[in-house]
């Protein structure tokens, strides 16, 4: 199964299986199941995997890809390159502002041409990125409406995700984005208030924790949909000691809302400046702890992927 990644945690206690096509992950104890075959051939596990669609989606998707039946046009758009934050580890120079209208028109043209010239494309997926993309929510609205129209015209699927710092993710903006088919959100919270506010600050140096948490609480208590809201925590030497408290706190606030998922990443050196980073990958340990404490951490195995990058990064780390 080429699309199933397998890895063990550093202590060797658990094995993780990750389906790279459908994003499902599963962890089993090596004390209970000595081999992968033992695990996969267990009757109850088989039923569970079937119920949770662990392999079915894979078989379906893999077959389609093999037959070249499914083609997704994935595009990441840096809709606003400035940001209302100045995180201590940020490598951005904030020289550019919002995406200009002629660039937007070129993007529309490119997408139309790609779809016209390739009848196999069945799905358009847009990732909204920045800087802070919500500084240009008008641009997101303008382009999303056009993309949805194009997809309707050609009878292809449309979906999108957004990576936002969450400061402007008010309930009103969230509802607007959901209407524009943004179904996957990534918001960073770097620890409890003291720790988050020491590294994720506004341009004037002010803290941002309270506002982001309040925005998310409103979303959690006021709406229900099938979106995914991933809370990302970047871990470095300054906040690692707060992690256990932070995870418990997030689970207390959002754990009941099945849309919320918690994932962890070592702060990476994506830019030109040297920043303090932790050398060993601690992200997996905190994903594990989240699951143990009753939270969701489905992005767990992305931490083990060998090649990774940042859309706006100035270098690729392999
Ligand atoms: S929110 Fe993102 S783009 Fe803005 S300063 Fe922080 S890391 Fe940089």
From TrEMBL:
Gene3D superfamilies: Aldolase class I. GO terms for molecular function: 4 iron, 4 sulfur cluster binding; catalytic activity; metal ion binding. InterPro entries: Aldolase_TIM, rSAM, rSAM_sf. The keyword Electron transport does not apply. Keywords: 4Fe-4S, Iron, Iron-sulfur, Metal-binding, S-adenosyl-L-methionine. Its cofactor is [4Fe-4S] cluster. Residues 69-296 form the Radical SAM core domain. This is Radical SAM core domain-containing protein. It comes from Vagococcus entomophilus.
